[in-house]
Write a structure and sequence with these properties.
The complex is a heterodimer. By secondary structure, chain A is an all-alpha fold. Chain A has 5 helices and no strands. Chain B has a domain of 63 residues. The chains are: A mainly alpha, B mainly alpha.
Chain lengths: 130, 108
C-alpha cells in the first residue's frame, strides 16, 4: 500500500523519475507508451460497455441493469488507473535496468470479463422469458 | 538532408508512427464511449442533469483530444522523440476515470 502511494506521487512528479538510472532506448519507451494506450483502450471499451448495458438492455430489472453497468464502469476505472501505474513501474524498471514488473491484473481482468459475460447471458435469457 | 543522414535517422520499426496511430486509436475509442455517454444522458428526454452530464462528457472528450493532439505533435517533430511525461499519462488516465464516474452517476 505504501509502495502504491509512492507510485501515485510519482505520477505527478516527472523530475523524480528522470533522476533514476539511465534513459533507455526511446523505442522501448515508445513501446511502453503503446502498451499503456492499449490498456487505456481496454478501459474505454469497458466504460463503453457499461453505457451499452444501460442503453441496450432496457427490459432488464433496474437492479441487474445498474449492477452490470456499474461493474463494467468500475472495471474501466480500475483498468485505467492500473494502466498509468504499470506504465510508470515499467518505465522505472527500464531506467534502473531491472526486470519488468509482473502482474496478476490481466488474469483478474479476464476473470471479471468472463463473469460479467456469463451474467449477461443469464440475464438476457431470463429477461426474455419473464 | 543527405542520404547518409537520412539513413542514420531512419527508424526500422517506425516507432513514432506506430505510437501516433496508437494515440489515434485511443481517441477513437474515447469518442465511442463519449457518444454512448451522451446517448445515455439524453435518453429519457432533456433534463438539467442530462445537459450538465452531456457538457461534462464533451469537456472530458475535448481534454482527451487535446492531450492526444499534443502528444502526436511531439512525436511528429523531427529528431528523437521525447518519452511520455508521467503527468501527461496521468492526465489521460484521469480523463478516462472521470468519464466512468460521470457514467456511474448517469446510470445510477
Amino acid at each position: 500500500m505504501i509502495e502504491f502511494a509512492r507510485n501515485v506521487r510519482l505520477w505527478f512528479a516527472p523530475e523524480e523519475v528522470r533522476e533514476e538510472g539511465r534513459t533507455p532506448d526511446y523505442r522501448f519507451s515508445l513501446a511502453n507508451e503503446r502498451t499503456f494506450l492499449a490498456w487505456l483502450r481496454t478501459a474505454l471499451a469497458l466504460i463503453g460497455g457499461g453505457f451499452a448495458v444501460d442503453q441496450f438492455l432496457p427490459d432488464l430489472r433496474w437492479g441487474w441493469r445498474v449492477g452490470l453497468a456499474l461493474a463494467l464502469l468500475g472495471a474501466g476505472v480500475l483498468c485505467s488507473l492500473r494502466a498509468v501505474n504499470h506504465w510508470m513501474r515499467c518505465e522505472r524498471a527500464m531506467r534502473r535496468g531491472e526486470d519488468l514488473p509482473v502482474s496478476r491484473f490481466p488474469t483478474l481482468l479476464s476473470i471479471v470479463v468472463a463473469v460479467v459475460a456469463l451474467a449477461m447471458v443469464v440475464v438476457v435469457l431470463v429477461g426474455w422469458e419473464g | 538532408m543527405s542520404a547518409a543522414a537520412a539513413d542514420a535517422g531512419r527508424d526500422p520499426g517506425l516507432q513514432p508512427e506506430r505510437t501516433r496511430l496508437a494515440w489515434r486509436r485511443t481517441t477513437l475509442s474515447g469518442t465511442v464511449s463519449a457518444v454512448l455517454a451522451v446517448k445515455t444522458a439524453l435518453h429519457g428526454g432533456v433534463s438539467a442533469v442530462g445537459v450538465v452530464a452531456c457538457a461534462l462528457c464533451a469537456v472530458l472528450w475535448l481534454g482527451f483530444l487535446l492531450l492526444a493532439h499534443r502528444r502526436i505533435r511531439a512525436l511528429a517533430s523531427p529528431g528523437t522523440p521525447a518519452a511520455l511525461a508521467p503527468r501527461h499519462a496521468t492526465a489521460t488516465a484521469l480523463c478516462t476515470v472521470a468519464l466512468a464516474v460521470c457514467g456511474a452517476a448517469l446510470v445510477f
